[in-house]
Each structure stands twice: as structure tokens, then as C-alpha cells.
Design a protein that fits this description.
This protein is α+β, with helices and mostly antiparallel strands and 443 residues long. The protein contains seven helices and 21 strands.
């Protein structure tokens, strides 16, 4: 039985439908309604519109105002004040001119005799990038980032990838590589401008990761893998990839949050794609999928995978400072399994769950994941958990809902021992259990 959540659809975008601009062609491209993978064009900012006409007897352009003319002493007083302002200004100018003439200070003559200076052209010093700077990180990591152009029965698009070996093993997202399944094609473009065909080594929809292998390449620069478990909120990070097909794009920001449960499952998917994401405000956009999120040492800490978008009604998604990366620590065992040609496995409790707050009164905050069904022979069942129990904590991690529980369990490996805190009939209990594996199941 799958650990299955209940969730509203459309919360997060994972870039499936946002390919980069295609190569130029003399043919007219299909409209977005004909082709869901049609690229989005870059729009210029509009010019600022003219200011509204000022109120008063007449507009700045000399057009009469629609306001009726002032009557009586009030209107006369306004006219006198306006005349006084004009005369005062004129008097001031005249007074200044008279003073200059009497003092012999000829401003115009002095201005014409002043020396003229022009802009200088100088040589900018060639300085080495400082350690820990974005510039240094970019120089270190860019050779390890590739652009992946994919095509298949689902359409065409592109994403990013991370070089893991000098002979062309590349890590990316499942939703990037899977476009080329069943006879599709993948082309890897490297930092030196070269290209190579690539094939799929393995995919894992549940963690949204995949491996592809570029053919006939050597001497690539593998990325250095860091530890996502040591990442702290507020630390600086750099994202690199190919947003909207613009390869080798570098952006920077900070870690905004950790262990953010992100669900990017497709409707009808047998098991949810949920992971405990690293949230960042570094700008990532469609096409960054599969690219690296690195620390200021240039070490890989996450795989950029999804964004929260303000786009509505099928509009174009773009960065609003809410990007999410898959922590590298959680997926390294999966990567090793795919590299070895094995089917990836994942930890599981063997329950179906829903948000404990589902159906609560508006405005009420109810944390926890409520068990709706216990799998026969599952780890949860063996530990004594029952239908209706509300899981509130796994080890020291607070559980806020069904996605939170699944993402947390996915951060472990099959066979790990955990302590489950749960509520039953208003009382809190704890139990220890050994997590199951989904090996041999359909998910």
C-alpha cells in the first residue's frame, strides 16, 4: 500500500510544460493552444504613460478644464495669488540679472571659457575572484552544468543537468529525462560549446531524479557533492542552469527554509512525488530543472526542481522568489541504485493518510497526518498503529500534514529505525518501528 496524501492540485510547477525557445526556423511556429510546449517570448516593459492633466483653470497643455470657473471674491483671490507667484518669480529673475550686471559677474562669459572635460577610458584591473564569492562559485561550477534538449511523444523541451563523471554521467530531474522515453532523444550541450547525444540510464519518479549518459565524451568536469544536511537557513547559495533555454545562467540568493514538503505529483499518478525541499529565493525558472543548487564552496547541495508560481489560468510561470531543490543527501542512495542498473527503492510506513485538519472549521490550524488505512503486514501495523491515529512527529521532525509525513519518511532509507509520535482518542503515544521498503511494489 502506498503512503498516499490528500492535496489540492496545482500548488507547485515542475517545469514540464515550459521548454526553452526553439532554434530559429523559417516556418511559423504553432500557437500555444496548438502546442502545449510552445515557448514563451520575452516581453519588454511598457513605457510609462503620460501623467494626468493638472486641475485648475486650464491644463498644462492649455486645454480648458471641465471644472466651472470660480465665482466672486474667492475666484478673484485665487487669480491674485497666481499673479503674485508669476510676478514674484519674474522679479526674482530680474533681481538676479541686475545683481550680476552691477557686480560685473558675467556668468555666460565665464561658462564659455571653462575647460571642457570628457569621459576617460581606463583599463580595468584583472583581479582574481575572491574565495566564497558568487564569481568564484560560478567559475568553479559552470563547467559541471549542461543543458539538456529533450524530445519525444510528449513534446519537446529542455532542462539542465549536473555532470557526475568525466565520461558523461549526468544527473537531472525525472520530469526532464522522461520526455525522451519510448524512443525520444536527448542532446547534452556542454560549457565548451560541444554537444553529444545522451541516453537514459535510470529514472525515479518518486524523487523526481534521473540519470542520463552522454555518448562519446571524455574529460568532463564532475561537480563536487556536498552535504545538504549541514545547510542552514539564511546561508548564501547559487543556482545554475538554462532558464527558458538561456544556458549557463547564474543566479544567487539564500536558503529560505528547509524540509519544505513539496508535492508535484501528476493527477492519476500511482504514488506521490513528494520531497523535503530546500527552499531558496535564488531565481530559478522553467529550464532550471535538473540544474545544481550549490553552496558558496561550489559544492552540490540540491537539484533545482520546482517553483511556486503566481501564474493563474495556465499563464506563464516564472520566479517569484519561491524555488525548491531536492536535497542531495536524500537522493544519493537512489542515484547509486540507478547507476548500478537497479530499480530505486524508498522507505515507507505502509499507510494511507490524509491531513488531520481536513474538514476542520475555517481558520482552525490542526497539525498531523491522520491514518485512514493500515496496510496488511506493514511497518505501521506491526508497531501497533491503527486507523484514525494522527501522526504528529517522526523522530524530532514535526508532522504538519500528509505531505509532511511522506516527505519526512522519504528522507530515510528502508530498514531505518524511527520513533513515531501519534495521538489516539486525545492521548499522545510513541512507538518505534523499522521502515519498510517499496521494493517489489508498483511504486
Amino acid at each position: 500500500m502506498n503512503d498516499t496524501p490528500s492535496r489540492p492540485d496545482g500548488q507547485f510547477d515542475d517545469y514540464r510544460d515550459y521548454p526553452p525557445p526553439p532554434t530559429r526556423s523559417s516556418q511559423t511556429p504553432p500557437s500555444p493552444s496548438q502546442n502545449p510546449y510552445a515557448p514563451q517570448h520575452t516581453q519588454q516593459l511598457p513605457l510609462q504613460g503620460p501623467p494626468p492633466a493638472p486641475r485648475g483653470p486650464a491644463s498644462a497643455a492649455g486645454h480648458p478644464s471641465s471644472r466651472p470657473p470660480a465665482r466672486g471674491r474667492k475666484g478673484f483671490a485665487a487669480a491674485v495669488v497666481a499673479a503674485a507667484l508669476v510676478v514674484g518669480a519674474g522679479g526674482g529673475l530680474g533681481g538676479a540679472a541686475l545683481y550680476d550686471a552691477m557686480s560685473g559677474n558675467d556668468t555666460a562669459s565665464n561658462s564659455s571659457s571653462a575647460p571642457v572635460t570628457t569621459s576617460k577610458v581606463v583599463s580595468t584591473p584583472d583581479q582574481d575572484a575572491a574565495d566564497g564569492s558568487v564569481e568564484q562559485v560560478a567559475k568553479t561550477v559552470l563547467p559541471s552544468v549542461v543543458k539538456l534538449d529533450v524530445a519525444g511523444a510528449q513534446g519537446v523541451g529542455s532542462g539542465s543537468g549536473i555532470v557526475l563523471s568525466s565520461d558523461g554521467l549526468i544527473l537531472t530531474n525525472d520530469h526532464v529525462a522522461s520526455v525522451a522515453e519510448n524512443g525520444g532523444t536527448i542532446t547534452a550541450s556542454f560549457s565548451d560549446g560541444s554537444h553529444a547525444k545522451a541516453t537514459i540510464v535510470g529514472t525515479d519518479p518518486l524523487t523526481d531524479t534521473a540519470l542520463v549518459k552522454a555518448e562519446g565524451v571524455s574529460g568532463l568536469t564532475p561537480i563536487t557533492i556536498g552535504e545538504s544536511g549541514k545547510v542552514e537557513v539564511g546561508q548564501e547559495v547559487v543556482a545554475i542552469g538554462s532558464p527558458f533555454g538561456l544556458d549557463a545562467t547564474v543566479t544567487s540568493g539564500i536558503v529560505s527554509a528547509l524540509n519544505r514538503p513539496i508535492d508535484v505529483s501528476d493527477q492519476g499518478q500511482s504514488a506521490p512525488t513528494v520531497y523535503p525541499a530546500i527552499q531558496t529565493d535564488a531565481a530559478i525558472n522553467p529550464g532550471n530543472s535538473g540544474g545544481p543548487l550549490v553552496d558558496m564552496n561550489g559544492h552540490l547541495i540540491g537539484i533545482n526542481a520546482s517553483i511556486k508560481s503566481a501564474a493563474a489560468g495556465g499563464g506563464e510561470a516564472g520566479s517569484i522568489g519561491l524555488g525548491f531543490a531536492i536535497p542531495i543527501d536524500e537522493v544519493l542512495p537512489v542515484v547509486d541504485q540507478m547507476k548500478a542498473g537497479e530499480t530505486p527503492t524508498h522507505a515507507r510506513l505502509g499507510v494511507s493518510v490524509q491531513d488531520a485538519g481536513a474538514g476542520a472549521a475555517a481558520g482552525a490550524v490542526v497539525d498531523g497526518a491522520k491514518i485512514s488505512q493500515i496496510g496488511s503486514g506493514s511497518a505501521a501495523g506491526k508497531a501497533g498503529l491503527q486507523d484514525g491515529d494522527v501522526i504528529t512527529k517522526v523522530d524530532d521532525t514535526m508532522i504538519t500534514g500528509s505531505d509532511s509525513l511522506i516527505a519526512t519518511v522519504r528522507s530515510y532509507r528502508p530498514g531505518d529505525k524511527v520513533t513515531i509520535t501519534y495521538e489516539r482518542n486525545g492521548s499522545e503515544h510513541t512507538t518505534q518501528l523499522t521502515l519498510d521498503s517499496d521494493a517489489g511494489t508498483s511504486s
